[in-house]
């Protein structure tokens, strides 16, 4: 009996790598192609639609927008393309159905069979594709025109600042020009705060300080530090009743406009404003960051506020892109000078502590305020005047959170709270003033603690006489030993 010859079937080894890799170029969206065609070939006229359409049809994704069969076949032959398969056209129709309104949806559905798996009316399909592409061209051109109009409005606003002015002028002439508004200080009622915002010296040597009218202050700090609380407090100082300060100047009585977007006006008034402002005393109006900038200008013209606060720029509806924020700051700078108000703009910071919104933003404002939490006292924060054009900079003030608001801590009177590894519980050290240095005991102690942490030596006798002879309770079991430890 003949034996059957056993045959083995050889199978190709699967390596996971195809023999031939075909490169498929990414498809550029039609919106981008339309913008490129308009810019490259200057096709911005009302009669340039057919030329733009012709350029778009040179891309395979738009071959089905050609209704004439002969023209479509000729272009495919010239470019070496194959016409889309029926399955591809069905998929395209389904995509248009998903993104179309009720009327357009019915038009696309009529091109398909009852089971929506075949194209039964190719001619209508080609006409709808061509109609859709023309509509895209109209939409993109309309957006470009709106962007150009916006740019012209901004340029006109900036141009209005220099109209009638020569391209250059002698500095002495500019100094004597009566048409220019002199620098006007707006007092806050507190000498420490006024000097921190900047000051000029009077003829008799007195410091005349305060905020500068028409200036923009950019406030950057991490989330949760207390930016909103601080500005609500500042708004309460400036927009409250008129009072007389330490120099005999009148302060307060301003009208404020507070623009914020994290809460509704009702919730903001309940959570923040009602704890500091009084309805019958404080003249402050609330607005929303969802309102467009053009409406803000109308609101400013109507209310004529002397203080405007934006909380925050990161919540503004038309400030999403850094370029938008820069253009907005330019306009607000112009409005602040034109209408004579002080502007505070809150900004968040990134992980490096830099203000968000682009590196140019801090250069476009008159002053930059940076906030940081007190590392010894979680209930306190510091504000650094990082930039103050035309005034003093690099000054720091300290604020402390209370139950409802924040208050300014005077370094000559305020106490300092310190947390140490040996005493993790918070302990108020002292608020006694040292006559020789005019500083509180607590500040001297804190400086010594920080010097020790850096590894610097502490001068002998630093703590001599700080506690002895005072009525303050000694917070250390052995003060002399504490002194020796630090000095050693």
CATH topology of the largest domain: Rossmann fold
Q: Output the structural class.
A: alpha/beta
User: How many β strands by DSSP?
Assistant: 19
Order of strands across the biggest sheet?
A: 9-8-10-11-5-12-13-14-15
Task: Output the CATH homologous superfamily of the largest domain.
Answer: P-loop containing nucleotide triphosphate hydrolases
* Count of DSSP H/I helices: 14
Report the β-strand fraction as a percent range.
15-25%
The separation of the N and C termini measures 110 Å
Domains, number: 3
- What's the average pLDDT? 78
CATH class of the largest domain: Alpha Beta
- Rg, please? 35 Å
If you had to describe this structure to a student in words, what would you say it looks like?
The protein has helices at residues 30-40, 49-56, 69-79, 86-99, 102-109, 122-159, 171-176, 191-197, 227-238, 265-271, 293-303, 322-339, 441-454, 479-487, and strands at residues 185-186, 199-201, 207-209, 211-212, 216-220, 243-244, 250-251, 256-260, 284-288, 307-311, 342-347, 367-373, 380-388, 396-401, 406-409, 417-418, 427-428, 433-434, 439-440. The model is unreliable at 7-25, 415-428 and 467-480 (pLDDT under 50). It is of the alpha/beta class and 488 residues long. The chain is elongated and about 100 Å long. 36% of the residues lie in helices and 15% in strands.
